[in-house]
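Sanity check

After download, print the first record. It should look like this:
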Amino acid sequence: MSIHVENELRRLPARTIVAGYLGHAPSIVTSVLGLWVFVTRPDVWPGQWAAALFGAFILFRIVDPVYEYATVRYRSDPDVIVLRHGLISRHTRSLRWSDVTALQAEETWSLRPFRLTRVTVLQGGEESAQLVLPAVLAPELDRLRSFAPRNATSKTSGATEYDTDDLLVAERGPDRDEQLIYRATLTQLLIAALVYGQFALLGVALGYALFELLDTFELTDGLLALAAAGPWVFGVFLGLIVIAGGFASTLVRYGRFQVWQRDDGSIRIAYGLLTRRDRRIDASAIEGIVVHRNLVEILLGRARMSILSTDSARQLGGNLVIPSLTRGIVADIAQRSFPAHVDDVTLLTRPGAAWRSLGAALTVVVPACGAAWGFVTMQWPLLLAVVAALIVARTLLGLGRVVGTRLRMGERGMVALTTHHASERQVVLRALAVHWLSSWDLFGRPRLAAVHYYAGRPHRGTAVRLSELDVARLQGRIAERGPRITQVRSARRAHAARRARIAQLVDEAP
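Expected structure tokens:
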């Protein structure tokens, strides 16, 4: 839907230009250094082509903040939000607040000194279902939040005061109608990074970037001297760099991780040190919860929990509610915050079978290693042998997860997909989120079923362990999905119309 309201569209704050230049400063400085290196040393590959690319990038960074301020316009009222952008080709997009499922506010390090916030209004997980306001002031942010829908009919049981293992529950937030259900401590974030393997991925990337920077300026003599001291010394040094860099990156990205729950059932997730992200998810957009445990978490008796919503399908940094904590704490938070789902979450009540997960992991690792050894003995190139072994491992892992997945229909109309393999994962979602169920029958009984549901993007869960009764019950709920969705949408439109009428009366009051 396009709405032409030229006179009512407003500009971004003028300070957005200065904030944009501040945010681009690191990339401009590094690009200038790169340009200087390739101009003064044309013999370095790729030579003058790299200098031209660096120059074009610097020019783009200089023009971008002014172009954004000159071309972005928006309008918001209690009924709809409209965004227009572009110069030669202008695009106007609008979104009704009654269809909004989440509102995310990002306070980056460059916007914070100017008291600006980047706002993303989400209807779905796809980019086409999102509107992004590059920078707004605090009063405008509060105004947008007042327009975002609140589901006043889906209240959950209130939390009581609970404090254990540095976990704080029931603390009131800035808005008096929300409670803090979880705040991550420094130790918990470090353990979570270690359990997930995030420290290795982020640390290797940072270490490689640091080595490239030192090599560019010919400052690698110290590293070469350390490598000459012996492989063990150099290996320990690199390991410490990777671990320290990974932990530092985790703390910068997910520091001050907090989860709040409002009295209307909606969830607010806030995290980040340099870039502070504040994400609000409407209660009606929450389709289910996911509990996950890898092999390390099974051995340590820990678990993590995230929510499935219609606006995003991401986990860590998106819809992650609880990072790796002990099963008892996660179960307690799930019981308080998601009482309709928790009855079907068996991973929080039963200890994991470490021997079973370890055995499943061996059924993937041993054949993959055997395949790699066989390909090498057949005189295959090493890289090709590794790729072939990874394909074998991925195929075995996929088959193992399908064989180890059970489909069950809960008593409260929840659908549970439980996977026991090298890791354990359980998805518990509302039956209304399932829009398609396909099954394969053998001898008159279903032997394999694929559950298709939407949570930010289309998902599919395949199971071979199922019962005929559960399949029949789920098919019946899917048949009821159309009329129920129509009723929900009608109720949300009526609620939005009442809210708009109230706002109009308030504006007209003397």
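If your output differs, re-run the checksum step. Summary of this record's structure: The chain has 15 helices and 22 strands.
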